[in-house]
């Protein structure tokens, strides 16, 4: 890459990723995600830009060190910024070992590891690949990162995928999907979470679903939490609902507490 091109990238004056080190290899438009990943024989990153979810936006005030593991690797924060997302896969010997979903304002450092960049990837293709990865992955951190990447996609297809994943046969997938569903306000998301509270076979997942209800906007989540607190057959689940209602500070929750306390006299 020329010095001029690198300067433009660092200044954010193009639609390309801002790579501060390493090599950026552009792939022919229309190249499939799977094809590029399978061609990486050693270690590399494969990435592309996609439409992001409208419930949040991300901006960066530093460089994201992709090769540095741990909480300190990312200086990304919510707030004003682009709703587009970079979806990046770290490949080692032809296999995905982690996934990152980042705001397009982030500058990227790979410590010299090459990046293979795809253009023209449709959201449907991105979601399809991520869903396939989730179905075959076993390592919890990879599953969590892949589910986060699904949640960071915009449009109704991503919501439908999250709802489907909230009914997956694996509890760890259902729990993560419920958490990310809670970040997307709306009747469909709330309905899927409420369904899990009632019908999931595992109490731990029911309790995670109660937490997810508490993350919804109060006008959506609080009435559902009140219903759980009053009617759910599991004492553990009811207790979690009461706990989160207490954290809400809503007058409807106070009314329920008064009703329960006065009724206990």
Can you describe this structure?
It is a single chain. The chain has 265 residues and is of the alpha/beta class. It has a domain of 122 residues. The protein contains 11 helices and 10 strands. It has a 5-stranded mixed sheet with strand order 2-10-3-7-8. A 3-stranded parallel sheet has the order 1-9-5. Helix 8 packs parallel to helix 10. The N and C termini lie far apart (76 Å). The relative contact order is 0.10.
The beta-strand count equals: 10
Rg on CA atoms, Å: 21 Å
Low-confidence runs: 1-14, 71-80
Average pLDDT metric: 86
Helix-strand makeup class: alpha/beta
Q: What is the N-to-C order of secondary-structure elements (H for helix, E for strand)?
A: HEEHEEEEEEEEHHHHHHHHH
* Biggest sheet character: 5 strands, mixed
Could you give a short description of this structure?
The chain is of the alpha/beta class and 265 residues long.
Essential attributes:
alpha/beta; 17% strand; single chain; 11 helices; three-stranded parallel β-sheet
Write the SSE topology.
Layout: H1 3-10, E1 18-19, E2 24-26, H2 33-39, E3 43-50, E4 58-60, E5 63-65, E6 76-78, E7 85-92, E8 95-103, E9 107-109, E10 115-117, H3 123-136, H4 140-151, H5 156-165, H6 171-181, H7 187-199, H8 203-215, H9 218-231, H10 235-248, H11 251-263
Parallel strand pairs: 1-9, 2-10, 3-10, 5-9
Antiparallel strand pairs: 3-7, 4-6, 7-8
């Amino acid at each position: 890459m020329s010095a001029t091109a690198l300067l433009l990238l660092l200044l954010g004056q193009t639609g390309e990723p801002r790579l501060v080190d390493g090599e950026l290899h552009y792939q022919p438009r229309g190249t499939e995600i799977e094809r590029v990943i399978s061609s990486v024989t050693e270690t590399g990153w494969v990435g592309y830009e996609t439409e992001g979810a409208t419930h949040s936006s991300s901006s960066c005030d530093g460089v994201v060190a992709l090769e540095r593991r741990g909480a300190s690797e990312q200086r990304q924060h919510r707030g004003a910024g682009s709703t587009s997302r970079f979806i990046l896969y770290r490949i080692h010997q032809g296999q995905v070992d982690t996934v990152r979903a980042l705001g397009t304002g982030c500058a990227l450092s790979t410590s010299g590891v090459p990046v293979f960049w795809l253009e023209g990837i449709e959201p449907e293709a991105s979601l399809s690949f991520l869903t396939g990865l989730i179905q075959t992955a076993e390592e919890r951190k990879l599953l969590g990162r892949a589910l986060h990447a699904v949640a960071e996609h915009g449009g109704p297809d991503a919501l439908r995928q999250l709802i489907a994943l909230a009914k997956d046969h694996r509890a760890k997938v259902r729990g993560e999907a419920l958490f990310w569903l809670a970040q997307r306000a709306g009747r469909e998301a709330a309905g899927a979470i409420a369904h899990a509270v009632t019908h999931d076979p595992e109490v731990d997942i029911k309790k995670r679903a109660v937490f997810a209800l508490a993350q919804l906007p109060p006008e959506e989540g609080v009435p559902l939490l009140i219903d759980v607190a009053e009617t759910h057959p599991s004492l553990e689940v009811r207790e979690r609902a009461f706990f989160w209602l207490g954290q809400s500070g809503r007058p409807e929750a106070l009314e329920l507490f008064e009703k329960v306390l006065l009724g206990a006299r």
